[in-house]
Design goal:
Blueprint lengths: L20 E5 L9 H18 L3 E4 L13 H10 L5 E8 L5 H14 L4 E6 L6 H8 L4 H6 L1 H13 L18 H4 L12 E5 L2 H10 L3 E3 L8 H11 L11 E9 L3 H19 L9 H6 L4 H12 L2 E3 L1 H15 L3 E5 L5 H14 L8
Parallel strand pairs: 1-2, 1-9, 2-3, 3-4, 4-5, 5-6, 6-7, 7-8, 7-9
Helix pairs in contact: 1-14, 2-3, 3-6, 8-9, 10-12, 13-14
Length: 367
């Protein structure tokens, strides 16, 4: 494996933040909005994040969800790379069992060539969708097979990224291009560097695997909060130093939304909660407006779900959000917080990241 410097993984806290702050984007599409508008919002947020000192910007893979337009992370990341200059960009994550490892190596080798030294490859083993859609993606109904094969798929992907299949291997003469093979070809000047690999998870499986392999780990606290501390503990206990990291490095995804007043923050997160109610009950759609969410008659069971969902979203005024994020970082020992804001409109999401940046005294925005 080509050695990856730890500084490509470890972030730097800015302003008065105790840990680096980053952004997770689901490219949400609200009612009355188009995917085009959502993707333009993603560019606006990425630019804001870069100006204000957020460390990285990741895009998640989801499928067959009308309110989430992030089905093709590599395509979106290429677009964001063309509109930014410094911020790290990555997948949070690519669902590896949905794809051939060679394809992912080629896609992220291309992204690395577009934005050298700025690309992260975050990998998950869930489908990012329902079972029927996963079957369509994978051309099989044996859905457990992909998850069970994840360590082998990861090993294959890593060898494609490093171009180091051993002699005699069926893939020894196959090369992911752009990639290291171009540096070894006659007259080659291609950089041998490649994106650092992260493992993503919402349970203990990937936590343990990341630890054993000495890889950085990202945990989905924003939808699996009850498993956060056990998974991080397992990751740290399992960690073995590697050429990638000499010590564990874990970030957690956090749902957080700041607004100018507490009531407005509540209105915005309630629309995301209603969207989740519909998704969990088999009725996925566009993210509803705050007005519709406020007027919606939740059943007792739905209300219980919403209360539980909102309890794990840090929301309120900028000071309240800062207090909540600081408390979460302290409780979990996370090395980095990756903030996702699920709201109906892009304006609310942009405003939230701006307010959070102000609350932490991150570098002032410039034109």
């Amino acid at each position: 494996m080509d050695e990856i410097r730890g500084e490509e993984i470890r972030g730097k806290a800015e302003g008065t933040a105790t840990v680096p702050l980053s952004v997770l984007d689901l490219v949400t599409v609200g009612q009355g909005r188009t995917a085009t508008q959502a993707l333009r919002t993603s560019v606006d947020i990425a630019r804001l994040a870069e100006r204000r000192g957020f460390h990285r910007y990741w895009v998640a893979e989801h499928h067959s969800m009308p309110g989430v337009a992030s089905s093709s992370p590599a395509v979106i990341l290429a677009h964001l790379a063309a509109h930014t200059e410094r911020i790290r960009l990555g997948s949070g994550g690519v669902m590896l069992p949905n794809h051939a490892p060679l394809v992912i190596a080629e896609q992220f080798g291309t992204l690395e060539a577009m934005a050298p030294g700025r690309i992260d490859l975050g990998l998950g083993r869930a489908p990012g969708t329902d079972g029927a859609t996963a079957a369509a993606l994978r051309r099989t109904d044996r859905l457990n097979e992909g998850a069970d094969d994840f360590p082998q798929q990861l090993a294959e992907l890593t060898r494609f990224l490093d171009d180091d299949f051993p002699d005699g291997h069926p893939y020894a003469r196959i090369h992911a291009v752009p990639g290291p093979v171009q540096a070894t070809a006659e007259g080659g000047v291609q950089s041998p560097a490649r994106p650092p690999v992260w493992l993503l998870g919402s349970s203990g499986f990937s936590a343990r695997l990341a630890g054993v392999l000495g890889l950085p780990f990202a945990f989905a606290h924003h939808f699996s909060a009850q498993n956060t501390i056990p998974a991080l503990d397992l990751y740290r206990e399992s960690f073995r130093p590697s050429a990638v990291l000499d010590a564990p490095y874990a970030l957690i995804g956090v749902s957080a939304l700041a607004a100018d007043d507490e009531r407005e923050a509540r209105r915005q997160v309630l629309s995301g909660a209603l969207s989740m109610v519909r998704l969990r009950t088999g009725r996925p759609g566009l993210v509803p407006t705050p007005e519709e969410a406020e007027a919606y008659a939740f059943s007792p069971m739905e209300r219980e779900f919403v209360d539980s969902w909102l309890a794990n979203i840090v929301h309120g005024t900028p000071d309240e959000v800062r207090t909540g994020l600081d408390g979460l970082a302290k409780r979990t020992g996370a090395d980095e917080l990756m903030i996702t804001a699920n709201a109906h409109g892009g304006e609310a999401r942009l405003r939230s990241y701006e307010l959070i940046a102000d609350a932490y005294g991150l570098p002032a925005a410039t034109a």
